[in-house]
Design a protein that fits this description.
Blueprint (H helix, E strand, L loop, with lengths): L7 H7 L21 H8 L16 E13 L3 E12 L15 E5 L9 E3 L1 E4 L6 E5 L3 E12 L12 E10 L2 E3 L3 H12 L5 E15 L2 E14 L2 H20 L9 H20 L12 H32 L6 H14 L23 H65 L1
Parallel strand pairs: 1-9
Antiparallel strand pairs: 1-2, 2-7, 3-6, 4-8, 5-7, 6-7, 8-11, 10-11
Pfam family, one: Neur_chan_LBD
Keywords: Cell membrane, Disulfide bond, Glycoprotein, Ion channel, Ion transport, Ligand-gated ion channel, Membrane, Postsynaptic cell membrane, Receptor, Signal, Synapse, Transmembrane, Transmembrane helix, Transport
Catalytic activity: Na(+)(in) = Na(+)(out); Ca(2+)(in) = Ca(2+)(out); K(+)(in) = K(+)(out)
Length: 432
């Protein structure tokens, strides 16, 4: 080395048997690579930073490749390969003197390594690679497969079309990125293209300096932007829910005077409730808010309950009021049978007239014929009474049908507006 050992620590390093301050690693003839004895002297210097002149900084360069997003529920679990590069000025040799060997692997536990600290992480349960790769110029590469649990601020309102932004912060006394952020993002996208339900959008970053008193730390902050693939949730959640809502809409075409419509809607609500219980395990549960898809399911359930309530009202109009044989109020005739019926274009056949016949006045008849006429008159009165009851039932049926048509169209309007709002909001999130 050109620079002399001037400082006390450098003088201490110069007292080693191999005289590291003035020579390179030695090699024996017939052996590939540096000798064990020369490297053992380097291992003994593990507590000291590997610089001949301590005024020269040792810069640690880092980069990472994101391999998988293992889970995003309350926190985010990432699997990444962290690459660390630094220069050890003591591990230098001539390849020509060492049988052409240009790179070797050594146990990292015997070498000095930079103190890289990962912030914004709950737990690191990864196992570091026990070996590093060293080339003949003294440059070291250490691959570490990290399984990091990052406490991201999850935004799940737009689930399953949500985009998450997770932060990783790396710090050391002197650290800098080994690759550009664009290159890191490109390398990670190759591994995440067909992996899991998450898609990597981009990896952004910046470098800064953090000062603690007189100490200064270099900080590298990475922002990992990931987007959920929504196909699984659309197929398993949205499409079945839409089918159930479609069946509920079609149930309005059942005869309103039939009790089967009410029982059918109650069975449908029960089935939708079971669907919500099963679906609950697929939705993310955080304290940050409720996803809009959860609100969507709740509103769908509320609409189905409203649909059942409409059936109950129509059933009451058709059966309860008609069984009392009460006249249809005049205001109901005007409002429902005239204005609302014209508004929704409801038409019904004209009422048939009952033909009445009577005996000619002044006609004399024998007693037997008079008794027959009396029986016929009683029968006519009974038939007239039945016809009146039938007319009353028919009038209430018209009222019920008109109200059913009206409420059905209002129900369709509500569902259409609600579906358009949901589709519009999700289209905006998908295009982002």
């Amino acid at each position: 080395f050109k620079k002399p050992c001037l400082k006390p620590l450098s003088l201490l390093l110069c007292l080693t048997p191999m005289s590291l301050c003035h020579s390179k690693l030695s090699c024996k003839e017939g052996h590939s690579g540096p000798t064990y004895e020369s490297m053992q002297d380097v291992f003994d210097l593990k507590p000291f930073r590997p610089a001949v002149n301590l005024s020269n900084p040792t810069i640690a360069n880092i980069s990472f490749t994101l391999y998988a997003v293992l889970g995003v529920i309350i926190s985010s679990l990432f699997l990444m390969n962290l690459l660390q590069y630094w220069h050890n000025e003591f591990l230098v040799w001539e390849p020509d003197e060492c049988d052409g060997v240009t790179r070797i692997s050594l146990p990292v536990m015997h070498l000095w390594s930079p103190d890289i600290i990962v912030y914004d992480v709950d737990d690191d349960v990864s196992q570091a690679c026990p070996y590093v790769y060293v080339n003949h110029t003294g440059h070291i590469r250490w691959d570490r497969m990290l399984r990091l649990v990052s406490a991201c601020n999850l935004k799940i309102f737009s689930f399953p079309f949500d985009v998450q932004n997770c932060t990783f912060t790396f710090g050391s006394y002197m650290v800098s990125p080994a690759l550009t952020f664009i290159e890191m993002s490109s390398n990670s996208k190759r591994y995440l293209e067909a992996s899991g339900e998450w898609e990597l959008v981009d990896i952004l970053g910046e470098t800064s300096i953090l000062q603690f008193g007189i100490d200064e730390w270099d900080i590298i902050t990475f922002w990992v932007v990931i987007k959920r693939r929504p196909v699984l949730y659309v197929v398993n959640l949205l499409i079945p829910s839409s089918f159930l809502m479609l069946i509920d809409i079609l149930s309005f075409y059942l005869p309103p005077h039939s009790v089967d419509r009410a029982s059918f809607k109650m069975t449908l609500i029960l089935g939708y409730t079971v669907f919500l219980l099963i679906m609950n395990d697929l939705l993310p549960s955080t304290a940050n808010g409720t996803p809009i898809i959860g609100i969507y399911f709740s509103v769908c359930l509320a609409l189905m309950v409203i649909s059942l309530l409409e059936t109950v009202i129509i059933t009451n109009v058709l059966h309860h009021n008609s069984m009392k044989y009460r006249e249809v109020p005049n205001w109901v005739r005007v409002v429902v049978l005239k204005h609302i019926a014209n508004l929704i274009c409801y038409r019904w056949p004209e009422d048939s007239q009952l033909c009445q016949q009577s005996l000619l006045p002044g006609t004399a008849a024998p007693p037997e014929l008079q008794q027959i006429c009396q029986y016929l008159g009683d029968l006519r009165d009974h038939l007239t009474s039945l016809k009146k009851e039938s007319e009353l039932q028919e009038q209430w049926c018209h009222v019920g049908y008109v109200l059913d048509f009206l409420l059905f169209r209002i129900y369709l309007l509500l569902i259409s507006c609600y579906a358009l709002v949901i589709i519009f909001m999700w289209c905006i999130w998908i295009s982002q």
